[in-house]
Amino acid sequence: MSYLSPKSTLGIAWLYAVGSIAWFLVLGVAAMNLRTFLVYDQNSVSIAPLYYTWLTVHGWAGMLGFVPNAAVAIIAYSMYKGGMVVRKNRLMSALFWVSNLGLAYALLGMPDVGWYMYPPVAIQDNSTFQAFLLYHGALLGVAYSAMALSSLCQVAAVVNLLNDAIHTKPNSGRLNIFTAYGVAFALVIALTLPALSASELWYAAYGLSGGMVPVDPLLWVILFWFYGHPVVYYVPFPLFGALYYYIPKFAGRELYSEKWARWNIYLLAIGSMLIWVHHLQTFPLPLLIRVFINLSTLILASGSGLTVLNLGLTILLGRGYDWRDPVGLSSLIALIGFIIGGSTALILPENPVNFVVHNTYYIVGHFHLVIWTLIVIGFSAVLLDMLRSSSPGFDFRSRGTVTLGTGLWTASFLAVGFLMSYAGYQGLIRREIAYPTQFQPLMLLMSLFAGLGISGLALTLSSALVEFLSYTSTHGLGLAQAVGIKAARNDEGGERDG
Q1: Which of 1, 259, 290, 387 has its CA 20 to 30 A from that of 474?
Q2: Which residues contact 262 (CB under 8 A, 6 or more apart)?
Q3: Phi and psi angles of residue 341, each rounded to the nearest 5 degrees, phi first
Q4: Among candidates 302, 283, 147, which has minimal Cα distance to 227?
């Protein structure tokens, strides 16, 4: 039962981390099913329902499963590193299970609407189209009720973390940089995620009432995107805090400017909640709003640029970066990957250019580059450090294997991302199953590199975990016991290093 309901701060971080990994596996399986369809050059619209179901499972598992679980895991771990304590462990565990089981119930209905759930398609239930292939009538409302319950539990989890952060902060009142970013973006999640819950509850009311509760498409879309853009930062911005924490350690010097880093929290946190309107590019928006979209997006981008500059100067002015350490290497790759993936987004808020690439694979390539590098590799750095924190004295001996796996994942998925963007530049429309056959060679290459990349990540994490289990077994500790001992020390305030 200790695995199902941990009783320590580090244990809670591990619970949500394992949940995020589980959803990562689900979205990965869905993605490989998509790849199976996409490499077949004779696809037709008849395969569309099954294709779009896997596409939706991929999106929901990622944005509604992996992202919130990974964000809570990183935030809880940042609190652990700052000497804070998650006090209501049973509540956090209960929220975890209810949230994930609710989402799993919805996914079992085979949704066919896309992760963004746009109306009116997302509430259709007729002979032509069904929002869920298996849930009909009132069950459609039940499915959206389960999703609303899932997101409400996620809101409750971050609110609980915020409350515990307030009550267990260090006596000095100054949080280390990792903890500061974690707590700040827990607040962003707490402010924006309820918009998703409200939009899902609206759908639930529609389904349970048999359509008697009307859904206004424009108002629903506005409500959804108030959550839908900030959600893309739920994991990256807490990871910025992790990079600010790790990179100076492996660069052999203090952060170039901690003042920049701390002021940047306000720029990123506020900016992330202002620019959601740029997702309404195809709506007839007034000119002044479009100008606001451009300016606010570029202001937020400047915050990301400031992060890159700060960390870049830290590395360049350091005493030699220790890239041989798995955590150091993963942190460095996450930073470089963010630069590469983020640079492809610079043209997107520009209205004269956006309409050219708005609905193409260029967009898919951009956000997947950020996901595959900053999010996946950055989260891997946190996981590897969590293994170290879980057992005193543990370190990675098979660094070559971990490095090989990390490099294979990174190189392969950089190739996939650029192939996607190139295909989009050539005119390949995203979410199309019956695409022009001229793009099939590119699809085959994407699938080939994706397979290589998956093997790389599996090699990295499995070799690290096997080595950790071997170490704890040699020293007479199980995983739960190792986590419990170290976390107990931290919960007594022994890990404050900020």
Answers
A1: 1
A2: 177, 180
A3: -65, -40
A4: 147
Cβ 373 vs Cβ 336: under 8 Å? yes
Give the angle 109-110-113 at the CA atoms, nearest 5°: 115
Nearest in space to 437 (alpha carbons), one of 454, 423, 419: 423
How does pLDDT run across 134-143, given as a tens digit for each residue? 999 999 999 9
- Tens digit of pLDDT for each residue in 365-402? 988 999 999 999 999 999 999 999 988 788 887 778 88
Q: Which region holds residue 242: left if phi is over 0, alpha if psi is between -120 and 50, else beta?
A: alpha
- Tokens 């049973």 belong to residue: 90
- Please say whether the beta carbons of 190 and 156 come within 8 A: no
Domains and CATH numbers, the chain: 1-234 (1.20.210.10)
Report the alpha-carbon distance of residue 448 to residue 164 in Å, rounded. 46
Q: pTM for the complete prediction?
A: 0.92
